[in-house]
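Prompt: May I have another protein with tokenized structure?
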Amino acid sequence: MHNPVKMLRCGLFGAGHWARQTHAPALAAHGGVDFVGVWARRPEAAAALARDHGTAAYSGDEGVDALLAECDAAAFALPPDVQAPLAVRAADAGRQLLLDKPVATTVAAARETAEAARRAKVASVVFCTLRFAPDTELWINEQASAGGWFTAHARWLGARHAPGSADGRHPRSPWRSEKGGLWDVGPHALSVLIPVLGDVTEVNALRGPADSVHLVLRHSSGASSTSTLGLGAPPNAAGAGVELVGEHGRTAMPRWNDAITAYRAAVDELRSSMTTGRPHGCDAWFGLRLTEILAEAESRLN
């Protein structure tokens, strides 16, 4: 792995909604990051975001290599199946990886990404928000240490795909419209359930209204969990939460609302992994496992 650097030179690949709302502001405000540039498929989008944060803009295939040449770490805010091959390219160039979830929507692409990181001996972190937001990270760690959980229920319902709900704050993206809540918010639920209850050993899935999906999972601890996931719920039905039930009674995951702080923590964890050589629990291999579970769930839907 790279030796520790005083300032982590970081390039951002992607200039869409979440790049503007979270990734770029977090990188620009991080005291340990030199935000060296933004790459996007649309030159005008890259230029606009780069201008907002006083950094350089890149586009086109040659721009990928040009930005990789300037950075130590590549951060991604791209559709998953655009992200995966670029992440492989970045790893092959020796760049550390700060990935978005899901890493990819095919097991083959997710595996290729994880194997590229291993082959290049670079650190990787997948930005599953709840694993890095301070309150939820603490709660997850506490419940994993407590153990004794019998079952859990996760509910993650958004209204962005409900009729008439699209707006400038949460515009629709083609990949989310195609893959739905299972792939968009499913990683969030799994990123909480797996560290607390153990790996998933059995998957069942059922379609609900609109794009919603109900997952029933068995975990290696013997506990079971259910998850209700979707992006097309009525606005008054939208919301997210996780509740655990077991020997200690019931506990609900605390609320969170600061994705920028969480993303900055993910950058810190990437730097720590680079320094220590120890993989983070939410690395590219964990991202691969999420894709494997979601792909199996999708295959069971009628």
